[in-house]
Amino acid sequence: MFPLLNRTPFAAALLILALPAYAKAASPFAGIVGSWAGGGVVALATGAHEHLRCLAAYKMGSDGHTLQLNIRCVSDNYNFHLTGSVVDPEGTISGTLNESGHSVAGTVSGRASGRTIQGIVSGGSFSAGITLVTHGNRQSFTIRPSAGTDVAKVSVTLGKK
């Protein structure tokens, strides 16, 4: 039988070896994957507000660090369809986004921490700040375009389907 002191380093080594697996499972994208539905409000630069109905689908890449997204929101007079791919190598996000309804495409960069992802989308003369927060089966995202667009802010709350 091994003395207690000899088993302690062995247990510590097992714990250290298990940490990378735990860190990989803690990807900020892990709670996002799946289908979501809900609604929100688009605030137009004119001061008008329109209610949105939204569907979102997120798929995780096989590497566990790439997220494919497809978000569609519609109202009576306004809609957008956002698609893209975002990578999270240890807390720093980057990727590409395309909004087909208004022919806007660009890159996204930012940070992911816990259940919150914050980024800046830039493309051509367009830029916007994006914040996405997931709490269990609830998700909210806000998009704040730079000045000079017809949209002042988009706020959406979704529930997991």
Q: Quick one: CATH class?
A: Mainly Beta
H/E topology pattern: HEEEEEEEEEE
In DSSP terms, counting alpha (H) and pi (I) runs of 4 or more, how many helices? 1
Uncertain spans: 1-25
Question: Which structural class should the secondary elements be placed in?
Answer: mainly beta
Q: Strand share of the residues? A: over 45%
Query: How many domain regions?
Result: 1
Query: What percentage of residues falls in helices of 4 or more residues?
Result: 10-25%
First CA to last CA: what distance?
53 Å
Radius of gyration: 20 Å
Second CATH tier, the architecture: Beta Barrel
Strand order of the largest sheet: 1-2-3-4-5-6-7-8-9-10
Named CATH topology: Lipocalin
Using the alpha-carbon principal axes, give the shape.
globular
Major sheet attributes? 10 strands, antiparallel, barrel
Number of strands: 10
CATH superfamily: Calycin beta-barrel core domain
Describe the structure.
A ten-stranded antiparallel β-barrel has the order 1-2-3-4-5-6-7-8-9-10. Helices cover 14% and strands 59% of the residues. The protein has one helix and ten strands. A hairpin with a 5-residue loop joins strand 9 and strand 10. Residues 1-25 have low confidence and may be disordered. The protein starts with a helix and ends with a strand. It has one helix at 4-25, and strands spanning 34-44, 49-60, 66-74, 79-87, 92-99, 104-113, 116-123, 126-135, 138-145, 151-160. The protein has one domain (28-160): Lipocalin, CATH 2.40.128.20. It is mainly β and 161 residues long. It is globular, with a radius of gyration of 20 Å.
